[in-house]
Amino acid sequence: MQNYSELHQLISLKIANTTYGTHPKELYEPINYMMSLGGKRLRPILTLMACDLFGKDVNNALDAALAIEVFHNFTLVHDDIMDNAPLRRGQETIYKKWNMPVAILCGDLMMIKSIDLLAQTQNTNLAILIQVFNDAAAKVCEGQQIDMNFETRTDVSHDEYIHMITLKTAVLLGAALEVGAIIGGANEIEAKHLYNFGKNIGIAFQIQDDILDSFGEGHQVGKLIGGDIAANKKTLLLIELMAVVHKDDKALLNQLLSEQHQEKKINGVLDLYAKYQIKEFAENLKKQYLSEAYLHMQSISIAEERKALLIDTANELMGRMS
Length: 322
Hints:
Elements: H1 4-16, H2 25-35, H3 42-53, H4 62-83, E1 87-88, E2 91-92, H5 94-97, H6 100-119, H7 126-150, H8 158-184, H9 188-215, H10 218-221, H11 227-230, H12 236-244, H13 247-257, H14 262-275, H15 278-298, H16 304-321
Antiparallel strand pairs: 1-2
Helix pairs in contact: 1-3, 1-4, 2-6, 3-4, 3-8, 3-16, 4-6, 4-7, 4-8, 7-8, 8-9, 9-15, 12-15, 13-14
């Protein structure tokens, strides 16, 4: 089996050697620019790992892995427009470097190209691959809309939040693994266990990201600590605080949420998080989803040493975030 760095090199070479078109250049240059910005390439690597897990040559899954990565980057192009974000991975976003119409059209074409890449997969039931891929793609869009809906609501529940991050973030990790497993020759039950492994890992990752935004170090998170608090973003932490805060602290919380002085706001909410043990709640929930993920991995009838790379990758990624 190939290790993480070998698979990263393989997908990076595939990305570098793939062209999406040349004319009109205003349409294709942004795609090449976006795909060259780098990143962890986690999703396509998971696709290759899943194929490798079942003993097939990972080269069989390269086109599908790139399809997953192109789709993921398409979502980022459009997310940057919706978030009015000027930077992505330290570089100008497409709509800032070019303009918004170019970014919209470029994203649309990236979605089309991702399906084209998936269709190049050989010796696999393409209809099943497209069904898995399109189901995940639709759910990502649903999750994004639900997340935007939360911005105007004050009554978001735990279950609604977990549902949103499952759709917006976790299902694509699951689908990346399921696609790779199918190409690798897994049966339907094994492929679904791998999907659920990835989905639950994805939920745990997002909970960890929420925790780090409030309690991490700046170099870990790569952004200003407390940014979610400053933006009144409805993370798991804030939702839990709203659910458990005593009535005598409710007025204080409402005052803090409308506070214009950012440092005072962040510190005040952090004090309430500490008082109501919000971090501990989130850590425990994260552990529950990790445990659920590993139960699905244990249900796959493959030698433990072959599963080790995937499990170690999940543990390492979680460790880097903690």
